[in-house]
Amino acid sequence: MSITAKDVEHVAKLARLRLDASETERMTEQLNAILRYAEKLNELDTDGVEPTSHPMPLSNVMREDAVRPSWPIESVLKNAPDEEDGQFKVPAVLE
User: Fold this and answer.
1) Mapping DSSP to helix (H, G, I), strand (E, B) and coil, where does residue 95 land?
2) Domains of the chain (ranges, CATH numbers)
3) pLDDT in tens, 31-41
């Protein structure tokens, strides 16, 4: 598999990046170098190697969900720049 300059330009457009010709060429070379390096992994003999999702064995790392009292609303809103009816008041983001 190989990355072309057209592929780089397409991804740059999706990411809303402006790349000049030299940057496009450099990115194409760098991405192809990464792919060539990744292709070397196909040369490894992985027969008998168990797939892993994490390098360290993990047991449940989540804490128990315990009910506890909420903070008083006065304390929560103490540092709010603006509040209305016990809620944070923020500028409208939709018209």
Assistant:
1) coil
2) 5-43 (1.10.20)
3) 999 999 999 98
